[in-house]
Amino acid sequence: MSGAGNMDNSGLQSSSGPQRSSEDTGDAGQTGGSGYIRGAGYVRTIRMPPPALGNNTADAQRLEQALKKELDTGYVHIPWHLVSDLTARLRAWNWQAKVVLFRDRRSFVVVDLLDPADAAPVLGAALDIGTTRMVISLVDLETGKTLAETGFDNPQADIGPDVLTRIHHARIPAGRAELQDLAVTAVNRHLAQLCKENKTAPERVFLLAGAGNTAMTHLFAGLPAFGIIQEPYIPCSNIPDTLAAKRLGLAMHPKGQAFLFPNIGSYFGGDLLAGILAAAPTRKLSWAAETGSWHVPGLPARPWRAGSVR
What we know:
Blueprint: E1 43-47, H1 59-71, E2 76-77, H2 80-83, H3 86-92, E3 96-103, E4 108-114, E5 123-129, E6 133-140, E7 146-153, H4 163-169, H5 173-197, E8 205-212, H6 214-221, E9 242-244, E10 257-260, H7 270-279, E11 288-290, E12 296-298
Parallel strand pairs: 2-4, 5-8, 8-10
Antiparallel strand pairs: 1-3, 3-4, 5-6, 6-7, 9-10, 11-12
């Protein structure tokens, strides 16, 4: 089981997430004296007051202040590689920008800045990293709508049909690299096909969120996994953290980010956690089970009633 297709604020917008209304688009989205335009989800169109002798805040801090107000947060990180051409962009765009954002466990992060007139879709991908099957959903980050989905056999099965065989194969760096390459190459191929079918390109995919059991997450990220099956059964990392997509070999937007759901332990993976979080807003889940290789049950926190699935 995996909830990779329905994620909370740690990953992608839920496919049943908020749709844009008249309050979120166009002039109706302007917020009185605040000077910025409200968007939806992880894409926000921001309007800033232009600098003047009496308002000499630097360009990066001007954008940061507008985003902090828009997001109602105390901190927004603007990566240094976006700062170098910020001055030219803001002036060319008349102090407006379409901002692609991601929220990691520390703060909101600016992924990229787009021309506010850019009407092309801003996309994300939700990835279920299954031992036997993998599933990718293509998501519109502005609306939360799932545009398309595809599933395919995990090509790591060519090395071994079961997790244990793959973990043993990954004991040496070359084995880890081979397994990772098999999975990532398949994801790239199927993501490109989804984009083609929706008349867009992988370069419009800015965010990817993935969930799998602890072992599959390690193998997808190229991390050593042998400790998971060796006493005292300790994984390399419980929190893979947000990564530049290109570091994993993912063919997405050049500045794209990849988020891999954290693992609670060696046998409580991010797939089970993602499923529980996906059900949390509706409280329609009383219990969940990973029915793949590990057979792990999961119980949500109160006030859900155990023993009833509505």
